[in-house]
Design goal:
alpha+beta; four-stranded mixed sheet
Length: 171
């Protein structure tokens, strides 16, 4: 199993509670070097149970490979402490959202379960507007872009120049 597949599977196992970081580390440490212990441990160190999809996991890995430390599932609040959004990833003040097409065919929130695709797009636009008002540029990543990480890196660099909030984001 390659690194990307291992991390994606590990993220899902952590998120679903099938395994803990400690269990994965312990099992991996029990491997012999010729069984790939080093590579497996490297993969375990990259796992993050906060990733909610394969696309988020792969985007986080691509950003890491570009030298960025991406934080998963960051909660943004306004100056009064009110919840604004929870975003997939945050890199140097830039919000990174992975967008699969399924997102626009259904909603993520139970209270929006009956929303039409048009309503979902409208709600997502309003959410993104609120994020931008906090001073965070938003970059959206789609599947085809994951095979061209250099372009993603260039977009993040350009967007980071537009950040108008302190680099330490609200929690």
């Amino acid at each position: 199993m390659g690194r990307v597949c291992a991390v994606v599977a590990g993220d899902a196992a952590l998120r679903s509670g099938l395994a803990s970081e400690g269990q994965l580390t312990e099992e991996t440490a029990a491997l012999s070097p010729h069984q790939g212990r080093g590579r497996a441990l490297d993969a375990v160190l990259l796992m993050d149970g906060r990733s909610e999809s394969v696309g988020e996991s792969r985007t986080r890995l691509a950003l890491r490979d570009l030298g960025y430390a991406a934080e998963s599932q960051v909660v943004l609040r306004d100056a009064d402490g009110r919840f604004v959004a929870r975003v997939d990833l945050m890199v140097e003040g830039v919000v990174i959202e992975f967008d699969g097409q399924v997102k626009y065919a259904r909603t993520r929130d139970a209270e929006d379960a009956v929303a039409s695709p048009e309503q979902v797009v409208w709600l997502e636009k309003r959410r993104e507007d609120a994020i931008r008002r906090l001073g965070h540029p938003v970059e959206r990543v789609i599947w085809s872009e994951l095979s061209r990480p250099g372009l993603l890196g260039a977009r993040v660099r350009r967007a980071a120049e537009l950040v108008s909030v302190p680099r330490s984001h609200p929690a």
